[in-house]
Amino acid sequence: MIIDTHAHIYAPDEKRYPPIDKPLRPPAGKGSLEHLRRETRANRVDKACLIQTSTFYRWDNRYICDSARATRDWSAGVCTLDPDDPHSPGLLAQFAREYGLRGMRSIPARDGQLDHPGVRALWKTASDLGLVINVLIDRDKADQASRLLADFPRLRVVLDHCLNLKAGPNMEAVLADVLRLARHPNLHAKLTFLPTGSATGYPCADMHAPCLKIVDAFGADRCVWGSDFPCELWTPRVSYAEHLRIFTHDLPLKEEQRKAILGETARRLWFA
Please, what sign has the CA dihedral across residues 115, 117, 118, 119? Predict the structure, then answer.
C-alpha cells in the first residue's frame, strides 16, 4: 500500500470556491482533485491526504470538506482553522462529524506563538475526537511544539516538512532540532522536504543523509511520505513520479522501512 500524505488541491470552479486575494496559483489545469486522482492512479498510489491549501483559500475549508466527503473511499481530509477564532474548535468537530475529516493542520496564532490558548483548544478538540494534528512550524517554534507534545501525549501529531529542512548553512542546526523532537513518542515525521529542500533536482541526493537520520531517530513506523502535490507548483524540479521513486528506489532503506514510510504508518494515522 502507498499513501500520499501531502496533497494540496485547487478547485477549477472558482465561483463556487473563491480564492483569497493574490492566491498562490498552480499552473493552468493543475492541482484539481481530478488531476490528483490521475497522478495517484498512474503511480499506483492507493490513498491520499487532502491538505487544506491556505495559500489559496486561507480559512475557507469548503473545497477540502466537499472533496473529502465525495472521495472518502480513498482520501482523508485535513483542514486548517484559525487559532484566534473561538469558534474554530466547534468547526473542527463539525467538519469531522459532517464531512469525515480526519485531521487538522496547526499553525501559530496571529501573535506568532504556537503555545497559545487557541492552539491548545484545537489540539484538545483533536485529541478528544481522535483526530491527527499536522503541525507546520519553523525551528524557532520547536521548543513550543515540544511543550504541546508533552501536554497532549495521546494526540497523534505529524511534523509537516520537518521544520522546512533545507540544504545550506543552517541544515545541521535545523536537523538537530528535528532529531530532538523525536523523543516525543506521539510525534511523526513527514518526509516531504527532499525536493523542497534540495539544491538540486532529482534524486535530491543532498537531502538523503538528513532524511535517513530522521528515519533512524523516529523509526520508520513514525515516518510518512507525501508528494507535495501539485508538484508543478511546489516541487517544479521534481515530478510526482520522481518524488515517489526517491522512496521506492533511491534511498537505501530496508524493505520493511519502505512499507512503513510509504503506507503502513499513514494507514494507522488516517485510515484505520
Answer: positive
pLDDT tens string 114-128: 999 999 999 999 999
Specify whether the CB–CB gap between 226 and 193 falls below 8 A: no
- Residue type present at position 108: P
Q: Are strands 75-80 and 47-51 parallel, antiparallel or unpaired?
A: parallel
What pTM does this model have?
Answer: 0.97
Contacts 24+ apart (CB under 8 A), 207-213: 207/165, 207/167, 208/250, 208/251, 210/165, 210/171, 210/175, 211/251, 212/251, 212/252, 212/253, 213/175, 213/179
CATH class of 3-271: alpha beta
Domain residue ranges of the chain, discontinuous segments joined by +: 3-271
CA-nearest of 123, 108, 110, 105 to 52 is 105
